[in-house]
Amino acid sequence: MKSLINLFCILSFSISHSQISFDKMPKNAKEIHFVYDKKSKYLIEETGVYGDSILFAIDFPKLKTTIKKNPKDATQELHFISFKNMNKEEQRFLSSSIYHSNEKIVAKHYIPSKTTVFYVTRNDEETKLVFKKYFHQSYPKFEYRQEFNYVTRIERRQFPNVNYVLKFEEIEKTITTDDEILGSYTEEIKGIQYTNSLLMNANLSKYITPIVFTNSKFGVEKLESIREIIQLKSVTYK
Predict the structure, then answer these.
(1) CA distances for 197 relative to 118, 165, 171, angstroms
(2) Taking a C-beta distance cutoff of 8 angstroms, is the pair 117, 147 a contact?
(3) pLDDT of residue 2
(4) What pTM does this model have?
């Protein structure tokens, strides 16, 4: 049985009750179309990378950080690591993290069959500039597909060269909440449990979500984890 470090790092996020106005689903709707943007919480500037101290401790435990003003918000402070202090392997790890954390999810939920399909793309223009200017690497466009069947409780992931079939029991998370709008769930990274935050929206179907939950009542407007922010951008019905 795998041992688990008994340490819970609860992250403090800026999620609040301030919400975007999304229309409720019409009674005769057959499809829900929605879009999420997923963004890395790393911030790349000319001389290095800004981020949360916990994230740096996970990804770069051997590197020391300094505290600096957030270059995009002077009222906040972030930890900082200079590129000069990173070896090639650490820089490759950072670029890989940013590459995998910046995605657009264009989704369709088919109401009669209780099936959701994600069309996921890595082709972010801002991330392309970061790769070109700071990492001196190419940024290849990448696409893959996910299908979630809520009847059979199976997810199918289709990548260009390999496919996976997963049971919901392997991927689903359970929400803990004191109200119906703000919630959280835990995930394990390197043997440590971290608590991620959720902002839900009572106007939205529970099938509007970037990941599968066991007990959701409403759709997810925003998800903030240790590594990424996932924000709902649009919802339409057919």
Answers:
(1) 22, 27, 17
(2) yes
(3) 36
(4) 0.90
Task: Give the per-residue SS3 of 16-49.
Answer: CCCCCCCCCCCCCCCEEEEEEEEEECCEECCCEE
For residue 17, the model assigns a pLDDT of 54
Average pLDDT of the residues in 114-141: 94
Is residue 122 within 8 A of residue 130, CB to CB? The reply is no
The pLDDT confidence band at residue 4, using thresholds 50, 70 and 90, is very low
Number of H helices, E strands in the chain: 4, 15
Largest Cα–Cα distance of the chain, in whole Å?
58
User: How many Å apart are CA 130 and CA 45, to the nearest integer?
Assistant: 9
Indicate if the alpha-carbon torsion angle 224, 228, 130, 104 is positive or negative.
negative
Question: Comparing 71 with 18, which gets the higher pLDDT?
Answer: 71
Q: How far is CA 61 from CA 7, 76, 92, 221, in A?
A: 17, 23, 15, 32
Neighbour tally for 208: CB within 10 Å: 25
